[in-house]
Amino acid sequence: MSHALFENIYVEKNAASDAVTLRILERLGCSDPEYIVHYKDVFDLRKEGCASGRSLILARNPGKHLYEGAPVCQSFGNEHFYYSPGVMNCIYDCEYCFLKGMYPGRDICIFTDIEETFAEIEKLEKDFPVYVCASYNTDLNALESITGFVSEWCREALEHENISVELRTKCSRTDIYKNLPVSQRAIFAFTLSPDEVTERFEKGTPGLSERIGAVNAAMEAGFPVRLCFDPMIYFRNWEDSYTAMIDKVASSVDLSKVRDISIGSFRISDQYLKNMRKKFPESEVVQYPYVCVSGYYQYPDKVRIRMEDHIKGLIAGKCPGALIYDWR
Protein backbone atom coordinates (compact mmCIF):
# COMPACT_ATOMS: atom_id res chain seq x y z
CA MET A 1 0.00 0.00 0.00
CA SER A 2 1.29 3.48 -0.82
CA HIS A 3 1.10 6.65 1.26
CA ALA A 4 1.81 10.32 0.57
CA LEU A 5 5.36 9.92 1.95
CA PHE A 6 5.97 6.27 1.05
CA GLU A 7 5.42 4.28 -2.12
CA ASN A 8 5.31 1.01 -0.15
CA ILE A 9 4.87 0.02 3.49
CA TYR A 10 6.48 -3.18 4.74
CA VAL A 11 6.12 -4.88 8.12
CA GLU A 12 8.28 -7.62 9.57
CA LYS A 13 6.08 -10.55 10.55
CA ASN A 14 7.54 -10.65 14.08
CA ALA A 15 6.71 -6.95 14.55
CA ALA A 16 3.17 -7.16 13.17
CA SER A 17 1.43 -7.13 16.56
CA ASP A 18 3.68 -4.57 18.27
CA ALA A 19 1.82 -1.58 19.71
CA VAL A 20 4.07 0.83 17.82
CA THR A 21 3.42 -1.01 14.55
CA LEU A 22 -0.33 -0.88 15.02
CA ARG A 23 -0.20 2.79 15.99
CA ILE A 24 1.84 3.76 12.94
CA LEU A 25 -0.31 1.77 10.52
CA GLU A 26 -3.41 3.39 11.97
CA ARG A 27 -1.93 6.87 11.66
CA LEU A 28 -0.99 6.18 8.06
CA GLY A 29 -4.38 4.69 7.30
CA CYS A 30 -2.71 1.49 6.12
CA SER A 31 -4.66 -1.73 6.56
CA ASP A 32 -2.78 -3.88 4.03
CA PRO A 33 1.01 -3.55 4.36
CA GLU A 34 3.29 -6.07 2.71
CA TYR A 35 4.71 -8.53 5.24
CA ILE A 36 8.37 -9.54 5.12
CA VAL A 37 10.66 -11.81 7.14
CA HIS A 38 13.51 -9.34 7.79
CA TYR A 39 13.88 -5.62 7.19
CA LYS A 40 17.11 -6.20 5.24
CA ASP A 41 15.05 -8.06 2.63
CA VAL A 42 14.02 -4.55 1.50
CA PHE A 43 16.22 -1.97 3.21
CA ASP A 44 19.60 -3.29 2.06
CA LEU A 45 18.46 -3.93 -1.51
CA ARG A 46 17.14 -0.50 -2.41
CA LYS A 47 19.92 1.55 -3.95
CA GLU A 48 20.09 5.34 -4.09
CA GLY A 49 18.53 6.54 -7.32
CA CYS A 50 16.88 3.22 -8.24
CA ALA A 51 13.41 4.66 -7.70
CA SER A 52 11.85 8.07 -7.31
CA GLY A 53 10.11 7.28 -4.04
CA ARG A 54 10.93 5.66 -0.74
CA SER A 55 9.41 2.86 1.29
CA LEU A 56 8.68 2.55 5.00
CA ILE A 57 9.69 -0.57 6.92
CA LEU A 58 8.46 -1.44 10.42
CA ALA A 59 10.67 -3.96 12.17
CA ARG A 60 12.28 -5.04 15.40
CA ASN A 61 15.87 -4.14 16.10
CA PRO A 62 17.95 -7.34 15.91
CA GLY A 63 21.12 -5.62 17.12
CA LYS A 64 22.21 -3.09 19.72
CA HIS A 65 19.81 -0.42 20.91
CA LEU A 66 22.56 1.94 22.08
CA TYR A 67 25.98 2.83 20.68
CA GLU A 68 28.73 4.98 22.11
CA GLY A 69 28.98 8.38 20.45
CA ALA A 70 31.44 8.73 17.57
CA PRO A 71 34.63 10.82 18.02
CA VAL A 72 33.36 13.52 15.62
CA CYS A 73 30.11 13.93 17.55
CA GLN A 74 29.95 16.41 20.39
CA SER A 75 29.33 15.03 23.88
CA PHE A 76 28.69 18.46 25.48
CA GLY A 77 30.67 17.49 28.53
CA ASN A 78 28.81 14.23 29.13
CA GLU A 79 31.06 11.32 30.05
CA HIS A 80 28.53 8.60 29.17
CA PHE A 81 27.39 9.65 25.71
CA TYR A 82 25.33 7.34 23.48
CA TYR A 83 23.09 7.41 20.44
CA SER A 84 20.06 5.32 19.61
CA PRO A 85 19.40 3.94 16.10
CA GLY A 86 15.64 3.73 16.70
CA VAL A 87 14.90 4.97 13.19
CA MET A 88 17.22 4.49 10.24
CA ASN A 89 17.27 7.19 7.56
CA CYS A 90 15.61 10.57 7.21
CA ILE A 91 12.81 12.11 5.17
CA TYR A 92 15.05 15.09 4.40
CA ASP A 93 17.56 14.89 1.57
CA CYS A 94 20.65 16.81 2.67
CA GLU A 95 23.41 16.41 0.10
CA TYR A 96 26.20 16.19 2.68
CA CYS A 97 24.47 13.84 5.15
CA PHE A 98 26.54 10.89 6.35
CA LEU A 99 23.42 8.70 6.10
CA LYS A 100 23.92 8.71 2.32
CA GLY A 101 27.21 6.93 2.88
CA MET A 102 25.87 4.71 5.63
CA TYR A 103 22.67 3.36 4.04
CA PRO A 104 22.18 2.04 0.50
CA GLY A 105 19.05 4.01 -0.40
CA ARG A 106 16.25 6.31 0.75
CA ASP A 107 13.97 3.85 2.54
CA ILE A 108 13.16 4.48 6.20
CA CYS A 109 13.16 1.71 8.80
CA ILE A 110 11.41 2.31 12.13
CA PHE A 111 12.21 -0.12 14.93
CA THR A 112 9.01 -0.78 16.82
CA ASP A 113 10.56 -2.21 20.00
CA ILE A 114 11.39 1.17 21.54
CA GLU A 115 10.65 -0.22 24.99
CA GLU A 116 13.77 -2.40 24.62
CA THR A 117 15.81 0.75 24.04
CA PHE A 118 14.41 2.35 27.18
CA ALA A 119 15.09 -0.82 29.19
CA GLU A 120 18.73 -0.76 28.10
CA ILE A 121 19.11 2.92 29.02
CA GLU A 122 17.42 2.42 32.39
CA LYS A 123 19.83 -0.40 33.18
CA LEU A 124 22.78 1.91 32.51
CA GLU A 125 21.38 4.85 34.46
CA LYS A 126 21.44 2.83 37.65
CA ASP A 127 25.25 3.19 37.56
CA PHE A 128 25.82 6.62 35.99
CA PRO A 129 24.07 9.53 34.22
CA VAL A 130 23.28 8.67 30.59
CA TYR A 131 23.17 11.17 27.73
CA VAL A 132 21.42 9.85 24.60
CA CYS A 133 21.14 11.35 21.13
CA ALA A 134 17.78 10.00 19.98
CA SER A 135 17.76 11.58 16.51
CA TYR A 136 21.24 10.60 15.40
CA ASN A 137 20.14 8.58 12.33
CA THR A 138 16.97 10.49 11.47
CA ASP A 139 14.87 13.55 12.33
CA LEU A 140 12.33 12.36 14.89
CA ASN A 141 10.54 15.72 15.02
CA ALA A 142 9.76 15.47 11.32
CA LEU A 143 8.31 11.97 11.87
CA GLU A 144 6.41 12.73 15.09
CA SER A 145 2.94 12.59 13.53
CA ILE A 146 3.80 9.05 12.40
CA THR A 147 5.82 7.58 15.27
CA GLY A 148 5.06 9.56 18.44
CA PHE A 149 8.65 8.83 19.50
CA VAL A 150 9.48 12.42 20.47
CA SER A 151 6.78 12.30 23.11
CA GLU A 152 8.05 8.97 24.40
CA TRP A 153 11.64 10.20 24.64
CA CYS A 154 10.52 13.33 26.47
CA ARG A 155 8.55 11.20 28.93
CA GLU A 156 11.57 8.97 29.47
CA ALA A 157 13.70 12.01 30.35
CA LEU A 158 11.00 13.40 32.64
CA GLU A 159 10.63 10.17 34.59
CA HIS A 160 14.34 9.35 35.03
CA GLU A 161 16.68 11.81 36.72
CA ASN A 162 19.79 10.12 35.33
CA ILE A 163 18.68 10.16 31.69
CA SER A 164 19.13 13.16 29.39
CA VAL A 165 17.99 13.15 25.77
CA GLU A 166 19.03 15.29 22.81
CA LEU A 167 16.59 15.56 19.91
CA ARG A 168 18.43 17.03 16.91
CA THR A 169 16.20 18.50 14.21
CA LYS A 170 15.74 20.74 11.20
CA CYS A 171 11.97 20.45 11.44
CA SER A 172 9.90 23.65 11.50
CA ARG A 173 6.87 22.22 13.32
CA THR A 174 5.76 24.53 16.12
CA ASP A 175 2.64 22.65 17.22
CA ILE A 176 4.20 19.62 18.90
CA TYR A 177 5.95 21.28 21.85
CA LYS A 178 2.87 22.30 23.80
CA ASN A 179 1.75 18.66 23.90
CA LEU A 180 5.05 17.13 25.04
CA PRO A 181 6.08 16.23 28.62
CA VAL A 182 8.38 19.11 29.56
CA SER A 183 11.72 18.32 31.16
CA GLN A 184 15.04 20.13 31.48
CA ARG A 185 16.63 16.82 30.49
CA ALA A 186 14.93 16.77 27.06
CA ILE A 187 17.07 19.06 24.92
CA PHE A 188 15.94 20.17 21.48
CA ALA A 189 18.94 20.86 19.28
CA PHE A 190 18.15 22.84 16.14
CA THR A 191 20.46 22.72 13.14
CA LEU A 192 20.44 26.22 11.66
CA SER A 193 21.84 26.92 8.20
CA PRO A 194 22.06 29.96 5.94
CA ASP A 195 19.31 30.09 3.34
CA GLU A 196 21.85 29.49 0.60
CA VAL A 197 22.94 26.24 2.24
CA THR A 198 19.33 25.14 2.68
CA GLU A 199 18.49 25.91 -0.95
CA ARG A 200 21.60 24.28 -2.41
CA PHE A 201 22.44 21.39 -0.10
CA GLU A 202 19.49 20.60 2.21
CA LYS A 203 16.78 19.50 -0.16
CA GLY A 204 13.30 19.30 1.31
CA THR A 205 14.18 21.05 4.58
CA PRO A 206 12.50 24.19 5.99
CA GLY A 207 14.26 27.52 5.57
CA LEU A 208 15.97 29.48 8.31
CA SER A 209 12.92 31.60 9.24
CA GLU A 210 10.77 28.49 9.67
CA ARG A 211 13.37 26.76 11.85
CA ILE A 212 13.70 29.87 14.00
CA GLY A 213 9.94 29.72 14.56
CA ALA A 214 10.34 26.19 15.91
CA VAL A 215 13.24 27.29 18.14
CA ASN A 216 11.05 29.91 19.76
CA ALA A 217 8.12 27.50 20.12
CA ALA A 218 10.29 24.98 21.97
CA MET A 219 11.68 27.66 24.28
CA GLU A 220 8.23 29.07 24.99
CA ALA A 221 7.05 25.58 25.96
CA GLY A 222 9.83 25.41 28.56
CA PHE A 223 12.34 23.11 26.88
CA PRO A 224 16.08 23.74 26.90
CA VAL A 225 17.24 24.61 23.39
CA ARG A 226 20.61 24.12 21.73
CA LEU A 227 21.46 26.01 18.52
CA CYS A 228 23.68 24.02 16.17
CA PHE A 229 25.65 25.83 13.51
CA ASP A 230 27.00 22.49 12.48
CA PRO A 231 27.96 21.34 9.94
CA MET A 232 29.24 24.54 8.38
CA ILE A 233 29.58 24.13 4.61
CA TYR A 234 32.22 25.90 2.56
CA PHE A 235 31.15 27.57 -0.69
CA ARG A 236 31.73 30.83 -2.48
CA ASN A 237 30.44 33.76 -0.40
CA TRP A 238 30.09 31.51 2.67
CA GLU A 239 31.28 34.32 4.92
CA ASP A 240 28.51 36.71 3.89
CA SER A 241 25.87 33.98 4.13
CA TYR A 242 26.86 32.87 7.64
CA THR A 243 27.13 36.47 8.82
CA ALA A 244 23.61 37.19 7.56
CA MET A 245 22.36 34.02 9.26
CA ILE A 246 23.78 34.98 12.67
CA ASP A 247 22.33 38.48 12.32
CA LYS A 248 18.92 37.00 11.60
CA VAL A 249 19.08 34.51 14.45
CA ALA A 250 20.23 37.14 16.95
CA SER A 251 17.40 39.45 15.96
CA SER A 252 14.76 36.70 16.22
CA VAL A 253 15.86 34.56 19.18
CA ASP A 254 16.70 35.61 22.72
CA LEU A 255 20.19 34.11 22.79
CA SER A 256 20.51 34.69 26.53
CA LYS A 257 17.83 32.02 27.03
CA VAL A 258 19.50 29.43 24.80
CA ARG A 259 21.08 26.56 26.75
CA ASP A 260 24.22 26.39 24.61
CA ILE A 261 25.53 26.64 21.06
CA SER A 262 27.28 24.04 18.94
CA ILE A 263 29.75 24.95 16.18
CA GLY A 264 31.51 22.66 13.75
CA SER A 265 32.59 22.49 10.14
CA PHE A 266 31.71 19.53 7.94
CA ARG A 267 33.47 16.25 8.77
CA ILE A 268 32.68 12.65 7.93
CA SER A 269 34.17 9.16 8.22
CA ASP A 270 36.43 8.16 5.36
CA GLN A 271 34.32 5.15 4.36
CA TYR A 272 31.06 7.08 4.27
CA LEU A 273 32.59 9.76 2.07
CA LYS A 274 34.08 7.17 -0.27
CA ASN A 275 30.63 5.61 -0.65
CA MET A 276 29.06 9.01 -1.30
CA ARG A 277 31.64 9.97 -3.89
CA LYS A 278 30.76 6.88 -5.91
CA LYS A 279 27.05 7.73 -5.73
CA PHE A 280 27.27 11.48 -6.35
CA PRO A 281 30.10 12.29 -8.75
CA GLU A 282 28.61 15.73 -9.55
CA SER A 283 28.11 16.90 -5.97
CA GLU A 284 30.08 20.01 -5.07
CA VAL A 285 30.02 19.33 -1.34
CA VAL A 286 30.79 15.59 -1.63
CA GLN A 287 33.65 16.00 -4.12
CA TYR A 288 35.43 18.80 -2.27
CA PRO A 289 39.16 17.97 -1.71
CA TYR A 290 38.97 17.28 2.02
CA VAL A 291 41.91 16.04 4.08
CA CYS A 292 41.76 12.80 6.05
CA VAL A 293 42.70 12.99 9.73
CA SER A 294 42.52 9.85 11.89
CA GLY A 295 39.95 8.23 9.61
CA TYR A 296 37.74 11.29 9.14
CA TYR A 297 37.60 13.71 6.24
CA GLN A 298 37.42 17.41 7.07
CA TYR A 299 38.30 20.77 5.56
CA PRO A 300 41.99 21.73 5.48
CA ASP A 301 42.93 23.56 8.68
CA LYS A 302 43.27 26.87 6.86
CA VAL A 303 39.63 26.67 5.76
CA ARG A 304 38.22 24.96 8.86
CA ILE A 305 39.75 27.30 11.42
CA ARG A 306 38.74 30.39 9.48
CA MET A 307 35.12 29.24 9.22
CA GLU A 308 34.77 28.16 12.83
CA ASP A 309 36.54 31.21 14.25
CA HIS A 310 34.38 33.50 12.12
CA ILE A 311 31.11 32.18 13.49
CA LYS A 312 32.45 32.03 17.06
CA GLY A 313 33.36 35.69 16.81
CA LEU A 314 29.93 36.61 15.47
CA ILE A 315 28.16 34.81 18.31
CA ALA A 316 30.46 36.28 20.96
CA GLY A 317 29.64 39.73 19.61
CA LYS A 318 25.88 39.12 19.76
CA CYS A 319 25.81 37.24 23.08
CA PRO A 320 29.07 37.55 25.05
CA GLY A 321 27.99 35.06 27.72
CA ALA A 322 26.94 32.28 25.37
CA LEU A 323 28.17 28.78 26.18
CA ILE A 324 29.80 27.57 22.96
CA TYR A 325 30.91 24.01 22.19
CA ASP A 326 32.95 22.91 19.23
CA TRP A 327 33.73 19.36 18.19
CA ARG A 328 37.43 19.77 18.85
Concise account of the structure shown:
The protein is α/β, with parallel strands linked by helices. Helix content is 33%, strand content 22%.
Polypeptide structure, described:
The chain has 328 residues and is an alpha/beta fold. The protein has one domain: pyruvate-formate lyase- activating enzyme (Alpha-Beta Horseshoe). Helix content is 33%, strand content 22%. The protein has eleven helices and 18 strands. The strands form four sheets. Strands 4-5-9-10-11-13-14-18 form an eight-stranded mixed beta sheet. Strands 2-1-3-8-6 form a five-stranded mixed beta sheet. A three-stranded antiparallel beta sheet has the order 15-17-16. Helix 9 packs parallel to helix 11. The termini are far apart.
Tell me the name of the CATH class.
Answer: Alpha Beta
Average pLDDT metric: 94
Strand tally is 18
Shape: globular
Please tell me the CATH architecture by its name. Answer: Alpha-Beta Horseshoe
* Euclidean distance between termini CA atoms: 46 Å
Number of domains: 1
Which value, in Å, is the CA radius of gyration? Answer: 19 Å
Q: With helices defined by DSSP (H or I, 4 residues minimum), what is the helix count?
A: 11
Per the CATH scheme, the topology name is pyruvate-formate lyase- activating enzyme
Structural class: alpha/beta
Main sheet characteristics: 8 strands, mixed
Helical residue percent band: 25-40%
Strand content: 15-25%
